[in-house]
Amino acid sequence: VLTTTDFDTIAAISTPAGEGGISIIRISGDDAVDVAARIYRGKNLAKVGTNTINYGHIVDHDTGDDVDEVMVSVMRAPKTYTKENIVEINCHGGIVATNKILQMVLSNGARMAEPGEFTKRAFLNGRIDLSQSEAVMDLIEAKTDRSMKVAINQLDGNLSHLIRNLRQDILDVLAQVEVNIDYPEYDDVETMTSRLLRQKAEQVHAQIDQLLVTAKQGKILRDGLATSIIGRPNVGKSSLLNHLIHEDKAIVTDVPGTTRDVLEEYVNVRGVPLKLIDTAGIHDTEDKVEKIGVDRSRKAIDSSDLVMLVLNASEPLTAEDRELIDATAGKQRIVVLNKTDLPQQIELEEVKHLVGGKNIISTSAIKASGLQELEELIAHLFFNEGIENSQNDVVVTNARHIGLLNRANASLKAVVDGLDSGLPVDLVQIDMTNCWDLLGEITGDSYQDELLDQLFSQFCLGK
Ligand code: GDP
Ligand code: ZN
Questions:
Q1: Where do the annotations place Mg(2+) binding (predicted)?
Q2: Of 2, 29, 109, 118, which is least packed with CB atoms within 10 Å of its CB?
């Protein structure tokens, strides 16, 4: 068991870079309080109680100057985020003062934290498990209230709890198999053992399948639903997009580790985060769109989970409309008949025939009609009532977890196949154990150091 004494004292700025009302420098480790005390003038921090916030000044002892007026929070182990002593220095928000204080903290006994290292310590010190650590990151990056709920659910440990139960079940069976192997004098022990293994493999397989069903929605909640709005020039794409954005507030997020100009645009439609693809193509001047035309649309279509194909209902179908209908045939698609406030020229029956009659919505972007129906359809296509009503259920959102669950299921299949083909029980046992290991990687009960490095390096600094 690791104890806090295994680690040195780390520090980082935990608030976003740039100007703000306040910035927070977080220090964690055995020496956290001492480090802070060395650069602080005010009460004796070594003597203040835990979970107190203390007014004072940061002083540069070389020059004798006050660097900033601060509030210092002292939180003593073990009831802290990392289970170590934590000090947080709340200073005025300027980047210069904040950096200066961080430098002073670093030259007084702390080391610069790596991205995610505070959370990594929370994991290594046993406060949270791996899937909960990942939930911390999901929570930071959550795009809608619904994504946030799923992340909080995972942070509460509900996924971990479920996985641990499955592992315990498997372990019980493996123990029973051991006992049977040790007492082969009983009659029929081989048949009994096989039956036991098969039952458990099938039962756990079914439970994992249930989890994987949630994964499709989970991935959308976490990463957003890649969506493109396509159609000929002037059919009303920008107008529809503006409605979606204005009514539901566009969310523009930074992609971690990238520069500002690769912003992704998200729109929150009834809790479904739509990640808009190639909105540049929509915002372009009309003649440019015309020039780039169908080719650009094809690219957007290819990378979409959902395509909204907009047609102008006040004009007859054109060759280009038909081309776009063809190009989107294999996709999850909503056909939007826009400009229904004008006299209708489009042949509705023909459109129905061409698109298979499904998911057609009539709108007028000008009159703002049909937009509620459009949003309802989007939400309905990707989240049936089941998810809506069962927000406390576990939803698997993480690609790493999904991969492990699939591999765990493959091991279980190998168990059943092995039994079917009459493999000796001790060989079948190996596959069952393998499943147990794979599930353990989700919670971090079994893990490798490289996994931790890779996983926590995706975190932002100071978390
Ligand atoms: P885009 O080229 O597909 O992005 O189309 P825009 O959204 O830029 O719209 C082209 C023109 O059609 C603009 O003048 C809009 O005001 C107009 N328009 C868009 N939607 C409607 C609609 O539902 N009814 C009517 N009458 N005009 C619309
Ligand atoms: Zn436009």
A1: 238, 259
A2: 2
Does the annotation flag 236 for ligand binding?
yes
pLDDT level of residue 384 (50, 70, 90 thresholds): low
Q: Which fold has domain 140-220+398-444?
A: Four Helix Bundle (Hemerythrin (Met), subunit A) (1.20.120)
* Ligand positioned closest to the Cα atom of 290: 1
Q: What is the four-CA torsion angle of 450, 455, 459, 462, rounded to 10 degrees?
A: -50
ipTM above 0.95, yes or no: yes
For the structural domain made of 4-127, what CATH number should be given? 3.30.1360.120
pTM of the entire predicted model: 0.68
In a 10 Å sphere around its CB, with 0-12 CB exposed, 13-18 middle and 19+ buried, how is residue 232 labelled? buried
Ligand nearest to the CA of 240: 1
Where along the chain do its domains lie?
Answer: 4-127, 140-220+398-444, 226-389
CATH classification code of 226-389: 3.40.50.300
d(CA 229, CA 444): 41
Instruction: Return the CA Rg of the chain.
Output: 29
26 in a labelled binding site: yes
